Amino acid sequence: MKEILESREFKELASKRNRVAGFLTFLQLLIYFGFIFVLAFKKEILSQKIGEGLTVGIPIGIAIIVISWILTGVYVYWANGFYDRAVEEIKDRLRR
After folding, report:
1. 0.85 exceeded by pTM
2. Separation of alpha carbons 70 and 55, rounded Å
3. Where would one find the signal peptide in this protein (predicted)?
C-alpha cells in the first residue's frame, strides 16, 4: 500500500482528482453564491412574476439544485470510469 501511495503515477492521479473535484466544487459554489448575491442585491430580478404565484427565482432555485445533482453525477461518472480504472492499473503495474 505504501508503495502505491508513494508512486509518482498515483501522486499525479491524486493531483488530477483534486483538480477535478476542486473545479466542480468551485463551479457549484459560483452558481450557488451567484444566486445568493442576486437574491441579496438584485432581488427584483428574481421576484418578477412569470405565472400565477410563480416568480423567476423559483425555477432558478430548482435549477441550482438540479445542477448540483448533475455536477455530483459528473464527478461520480469520472471517478468510477477514469479514476478507479487508473488506480487499478497502477496497482497492477506495481504488483508485477
Report:
1. no
2. 24
3. none
